[in-house]
Design a protein that fits this description.
heterotrimer, A mainly alpha (165), B alpha/beta (317), C mainly alpha (506), A: 165 residues, mainly alpha, 2 domains, 7 helices, C: two-stranded antiparallel ribbon, 72% helix
Chain lengths: 165, 317, 506
């Protein structure tokens, strides 16, 4: 069984390694100070890498020596239970957000938000129906009014913009 | 926090010069948008908003200012390069747009824009704390020659930094050029004696000058300043360094001839406007009108010089 | 004394009163919207100040600033979204209290602490401007470095049960802070040719991602399993007993806020985290922190509202803006041809007196507007969870977009949300990441700047007295907290760990 710390430690090692790879490619210039633009990044990278290894070692060691075994194993088994389902649901919401990102410049802010709200609410368990659509439409107009009208942020106009709205 | 990373303000659009003057029919579009990468309240922003007040009636169009932030001008250059060259949109240029183009190699660079005209050249001066022992630039350079000088520039990879590096090379001394996060940090470190000298525009240190807390040592301009006739130029002192911090406009490529002509006329007129003149002279701006052709050449030269400097020092390949 | 009398005469100036109230209301609204920072809120008003009287214009902008610094705490408590960077520390205990059905009290404490902090800061600004401005001057690059290290030392105590995990989280934040333009050479780092990354990643995007977006993802994963307690839509101010208990954390916040505000570049975020940590260190009930401690709201909220006032010290006495917001205020001065700095008090004394009076009025405006607006906000977050979360999602996507009008930023925020989701699943704490992110640039740039100054001589950090003192303090903090961990471990006691709810809520 793999503990969460083991996964975390390995993830840190990977992130540290990737970061270091790029840190070593930073350009050197005559305007540099002695530490240079890559000085701190290298320190951070090596630190993350070693801390990741320590965490990994900790995780493995505590598996080997720690834990009165039966109880430990029980705890470990429970550790990942249901996480797959959780990740699935979270990924769903993330996908709705990603869809919004890809649509907002084409459809425009008002339309995209009017679609985002009912999609996210339905996904999160609200009953789909006229009531939801009405709330979403009202909410989208309210958000648009706050950001575009009151605050004057130039939100993407998209479709409606082309219609001259 | 990072001062130069000021958050974008969306686009605070301000209508100015609402009354279209007598020349309304001369200019091809009703509204001219001047884009700046500076944040609202920043140097370029204040300058443009002041200018737009006087420019509107003279140009015969509404002049509005828009802040397009992000990427130290990269976003503004991309915005401009992709808009129609109909005279409706211009970018307020300062040396920053050349530095950004060269340093970060964005998709759209200063070479994708067409310089229109130049308005001003801001004099850059060398200053020290009034409590310091340095009376002349020579004192500072002697100090750097003997030991280790500490000189300050407001931002990394900026015109001021380049000026100090060039001064260092011209004087043959090894001073540390310390960069900061904007003029404020720099000013504090000059006032508290951490640095011997700082470089900046006069308007940034105006209040301290008046209060007698700072002393000017030299100016990087090509001739002496009207406001400080006793202040020598760096060139006079024997170091061949001249800095021209320009403020002008640039537009998309292929600007129509009538637009260029309208601007050349309007800019000369606005710079001569009594009321505006009083305002910009109070802010220590020096009118340095350059017509279209001259400005195009100027920007090209400036770009090449900067590129050479950055290449020599190894900042860019 | 003379200043007080002259300022008082402007208390009844109608223009000042209107500007102060309008500004503070606008500020609360802007600050409460995630992504709309105090500086953006002020910048949006800047064009209108052109045609105003100079005094009203300055009062309007300054009142907006203090309103916005307060407003950030509202979404921090109600929807786990820091409306401003400085409100990030308030999220920890504020949101926890909200989950326990005590949103009304949490908002009451933040409002009341904000008003106290604001008044304290104003008093410091009026009475001690001169001495405080000398503090700002005394801070050289090595001292700033030491200050940053002192801020980072907080990580040692905010790391939860596993110190290694806390450090990993902190380094992730430090790494994000290296993206963008190099502070010394001006070259680019880790931008991969993207011009959006050129000026770095705004901390608020990462904070909203880590706190709010990850919470949405976790709740989506939980599918309404968690019991939900709703709060009554009314504001409760603390009773006498609680107010007495809060007085100490508030004083900590006030003092730290005063100093951090005065130093250009330090800012409200560091102040609120440091006072949060100090409040916890000196509290009689440190175990409550992270689980809905009222002191955990009072300290940072007092601090960041104090900062909003004392940040005016360097602006007025040197003409140096210490933050984005004061940079905009400087613009407001310059537009009207007033140059802040040593000559300001002689030349435009009446503007300064009007400003003081306006800030005083604005603080009471803040109290009144808070009491009027907040019940409606609580009502809003009591709506059924799927609706609420869908709207929060739409709100943060709108707010982050408006920072640079960029979809790219939304991607960064969502990515930070995904990282936050997995960090919670793997039980990594967030706070070290946030601190690393906020302090990374300050620490790196001032460290390298100091070395350039000294010619690579590390003794500069010892020779500078302020730097030495702060570094020793940081060392004591780290050693103390490590020592305590080892002691607890040796006694085989469960490490009395603190974490901000990094556990996935099951």
């Amino acid at each position: 069984m793999i503990s969460r710390d083991l996964v975390g430690g390995l993830a840190a090692v990977v992130i540290g390694a990737v970061y270091l790879y790029f840190a070593y490619q930073l350009r050197v210039s005559a305007l540099d100070d002695s530490l240079g633009p890559s000085g701190m990044p290298r320190i951070y990278g090596w630190l993350l890498l070693s801390l990741g290894l320590i965490l990994t070692a900790q995780a493995i060691l505590s598996r080997l020596i720690g834990a009165p075994l039966a109880a430990g194993r029980e705890a470990l088994r429970g550790e990942w239970e249901g996480q797959g389902r959780r990740i699935g649901w979270a990924a769903g919401l993330f996908a709705i957000g990603a869809a919004y990102l890809s649509a907002v410049e084409k459809l425009g802010y008002l339309v995209s938000v009017a679609l985002l709200i009912p999609a996210a609410a339905t996904f999160l368990g609200a009953r789909f129906g006229p009531r939801l659509l009405a709330i979403a439409a009202l909410g989208a107009v309210a958000l648009w009014a706050i950001f575009a009208l009151v605050l004057g942020v130039s939100m993407p106009s998209g479709l409606l913009g082309r219609l001259g709205l | 926090m990072r001062k130069q990373r000021i958050l974008a303000a969306g686009s605070a659009v301000f209508m100015c010069g609402m009354i279209a003057g007598a020349h309304a029919q001369d200019y091809p579009v009703d509204t001219v948008t001047l884009i700046t990468h500076s944040s609202p309240g920043g140097g370029s922003d204040v300058f443009l908003r002041e200018l737009s007040r006087y420019l509107g009636p003279i140009l015969g169009a509404n002049v509005v200012v828009e802040n397009v932030r992000g990427g130290s001008g990269a976003a503004a250059m991309a915005n401009l390069a992709q808009s129609a060259p109909d005279g409706s949109k211009f970018y307020a240029t300062t040396p920053t747009f050349i530095y950004t183009s060269l340093l970060s190699d964005p998709e759209y660079k200063y070479t994708d824009l067409e310089p229109l005209v130049n308005f001003f050249i801001d004099p850059e001066v060398i200053y020290t704390s009034a409590n310091s022992e340095y009376q002349t630039l020579e004192d500072v350079i002697d100090h750097a020659r003997e030991g280790r000088g500490q000189w300050g520039a407001a931002n990394p990879a900026s015109l001021e930094r380049q000026a100090l590096e060039q001064l260092k090379a011209a004087a043959g001394v090894n001073a540390a050029v310390v960069t900061h996060e904007g003029g404020g940090d720099l000013l504090i470190n000059v006032l508290n004696g951490t640095l011997q000298i700082g470089v900046g525009e006069v308007q940034e240190i105006q209040s301290q000058l008046e209060a007698g807390e700072l002393r000017l040592l030299a100016t990087f301009s090509d001739e002496r300043l009207e406001a400080f006739p006793d202040l020598p130029t760096v060139e006079e002192l024997g170091y061949d360094v001249v800095v021209r911090k320009f403020r002008g406009l640039a537009g998309p490529k292929d600007l129509p001839v009538d637009v260029i002509a309208a601007w050349e006329r309007a800019v000369q007129e606005v710079l001569a406007d009594e009321e505006y003149k009083a305002a910009y002279e109070a802010a220590n701006l020096r009118a340095a009108y350059m017509p279209h052709e001259e400005y195009v050449q100027f920007i090209e030269d400036f770009g090449n010089e900067t590129r050479d400097f950055l290449k020599e020092t190894g900042v860019i390949e | 004394m003379e200043t007080l009398v002259q300022s008082a005469s402007y208390l009844f100036d109608l223009g000042v009163i209107i500007a102060a109230l309008a500004g503070v209301t606008w500020g609360i609204m802007g600050g409460a919207l995630p992504g709309i920072s105090p500086s953006i809120t002020m910048a949006l008003l800047l064009p209108f100040t052109y045609t105003m009287e100079p005094m009203s214009a300055i009062v309007l902008l300054a009142s907006t600033y203090i309103g916005a610094e307060y407003g950030g705490s509202v979404p921090a408590i109600l929807i786990r979204t820091p409306g401003t960077n400085a409100a990030a520390a308030t999220v920890i205990d504020g949101y926890e209290m909200n989950r326990q059905g005590k949103a009304g009290l949490a908002l009451g404490i933040s409002l009341y602490s904000g008003v106290l902090g604001s008044l304290f800061g104003l008093a410091m600004l009026i009475l001690l401007s001169g001495p405080l401005s000398r503090v700002a001057l005394a801070f050289t690059p090595p001292a700033y470095f030491a200050l940053g290290v002192l801020g980072l030392s907080v990580i040692a105590t905010l790391s939860g049960e596993n110190l290694v995990k806390g450090f990993i989280a902190a380094i992730l934040g430090l790494m994000v802070a290296t993206i963008g333009t190099d502070p010394v050479t001006g070259g680019t780092r880790f931008t991969f040719g993207s011009s959006e990354l050129l000026s770095g990643i705004e901390p608020v995007m990462i904070m909203v991602g880590l706190f709010a977006m990850s919470e949405l993802l976790v709740q989506a994963g939980g599918r309404g399993e968690a019991e939900r307690v709703t709060s009554r839509p009314r504001i409760n101010f603390p009773d006498l007993k609680l107010a007495r208990r809060l007085a100490f954390p508030q004083s900590i916040g006030g003092v730290i806020g005063t100093f951090e505000g005065v130093m250009p570049g330090a800012g409200g975020t560091i102040a609120s985290f440091m006072s949060y940590n100090e409040a916890r260190r000196w509290s009689r009930r440190p175990e409550e922190f992270g689980k809905g401690s009222p002191e955990g709201i009072a300290a940072p909220e007092t601090a960041n509202n104090t900062v909003a006032e004392t940040a005016l010290v360097p602006l007025l006495s040197f003409g140096i803006p210490g933050s984005n917001s004061t940079a905009i205020l400087l613009g407001g001065f310059l537009i009207h041809g007033i140059v802040p700095g040593p000559m300001l008090f002689q030349r435009s004394g009446e503007i300064v007196h009007g400003l003081y009076a306006g800030l005083f009025t604005a603080t009471f405006g803040m109290l009144v507007m808070g009491m009027l607006l907040l019940p409606a906000c609580i009502w809003l977050v009591n709506r059924p969870r799927p609706y609420l979360n869908a709207f929060i999602f739409a709100l943060i996507l709108s707010g982050i977009y408006s920072i640079h009008n960029s979809v790219f930023d939304l991607g960064i925020m969502m990515a930070a949300g995904a990282v936050g989701f997995f960090m919670r699943m793997l039980r990594f704490p967030f706070l070290p990441t946030v601190l690393g992110l906020v302090l990374g640039y300050l620490v790196e740039s001032s460290f390298r700047r100091s070395l350039v100054l000294s010619g690579d001589d590390l003794m500069i950090f010892v020779d500078d007295r302020i730097s030495l003192a702060l570094l020793m303090l940081a060392f004591l903090f780290i050693a103390g907290s490590l020592g305590k961990r080892i002691y607890d471990l040796a006694r085989r006691r469960r490490v009395e760990a603190f974490s901000e709810g990094s556990e996935a809520r099951e």
